[in-house]
Specification:
310 residues; 2 domains; flat
Length: 310
């Protein structure tokens, strides 16, 4: 939940152009509590982003220790380490972006944040009762097409990169009308980098819409697990919300709240799709753990990971 607030704070800071309101790091104007930051919108946005980043970093450290203490699954422990490494990298990237005043670091920072959110999602999924109750039955998600899911997630991530470049290069309104261009056509009359990256964002959205249509049909035919089906349908709902928010960003002249919600919903969409796809790996992950760790668990009395399921 705190990570969601962090994603929103980061998105809002970028939207209002407050990323460089403080020229120093890790302090803000040389202080942990800079004077007047609660009265200035830009200062409040950036300093809140930094404070939330610190909180998420500490919580991730605690989460990693907790996983290693109570969960004997090797893949889950690796997920914990991955989350810790990612949150440290995020903090460093955020700081370097300020110290170097380099927008390219901000682009990587924005993309890495959503990868971190997906890792946290996988950790959460791995501790649910649904995950632990799955077995290799005829309706097991092991039969889902991994290739379809991988392609869809790859498309989403490419879209994320394109969107981050578009935002940080100031091309959010390079094509100021939607769904048609100002000339009334589908293709812009004049091209430059901003128009090209903006148009690529729109074109990829159409490709992703068709990809989701194929993916959800395949998902419904491949599993009878209601929870997994529900996740897939929820992802499709989020897709339509995302398209609507994207249109609203144009129609409302990139209003800060709408634009930030568009960014936040993209994180929800990617994480929900990833969570649905992650069930494809249930059988492989748990089977390898059963073979490798069952004798050791019996010998040392380590905690059964199912006992900590939510």
């Amino acid at each position: 939940m705190v990570t969601l607030f962090l994603l929103y704070a980061g998105g809002f800071t970028t939207t209002i152009g407050a990323g460089m309101i403080f020229p120093d790091w890790p302090l803000s104007n040389g202080s942990l509590n800079p004077e007047g930051w609660t009265q200035n919108t830009a200062m409040a946005a950036e300093h809140s982003h930094r404070l939330l980043g610190m909180i998420v970093g500490n919580l991730t450290l605690a989460l990693t220790f907790w996983i290693w203490w109570v969960d004997g699954r090797r893949w889950m422990r690796r997920m914990g380490i991955a989350a810790l490494i990612l949150v440290v990298l995020q903090g460093i990237l955020g700081g370097v972006r300020v110290l170097e005043n380099e927008v390219n670091y901000a682009i990587v920072h924005g993309c890495l944040g959503q990868i971190f959110f997906c890792v946290l999602t996988a950790i959460a999924i791995g501790h649910t009762r649904v995950w632990h109750k799955l077995r290799e039955k005829s309706d097991s998600p092991v039969k889902l097409s991994r290739t379809t899911g991988v392609v869809l997630i790859a498309l989403l991530f490419v879209q994320l990169i394109v969107a981050a470049i578009m935002r940080h290069k100031g091309a959010g309104l390079a094509i100021p009308t939607f769904p048609l261009t100002p000339e009334g056509g589908l293709l812009p009359a004049n091209w430059n980098f901003g128009v090209a990256i903006h148009f690529a964002h729109r074109a990829l959205a159409v490709v992703i819409l068709f990809a989701y249509s194929f993916w959800i049909v395949k998902l419904m035919r491949s599993t009878r697990q209601n929870f997994i089906r529900g996740l897939g349908l929820f992802a499709c709902i989020l897709l339509f919300v995302q398209i609507t928010l994207g249109a609203a960003v144009i129609w409302m002249g990139r209003a800060p709240i709408i634009t930030t919600m568009h960014v936040l919903n993209s994180a929800f969409l990617l994480a929900t799709t990833w969570a649905t796809h992650f069930f494809c790996y249930h059988a492989a992950l748990e089977k390898s753990e059963n073979v490798a760790t069952a004798p050791a668990n019996q010998a040392d009395g380590s905690t059964n990971p199912q006992a900590v399921g939510l």
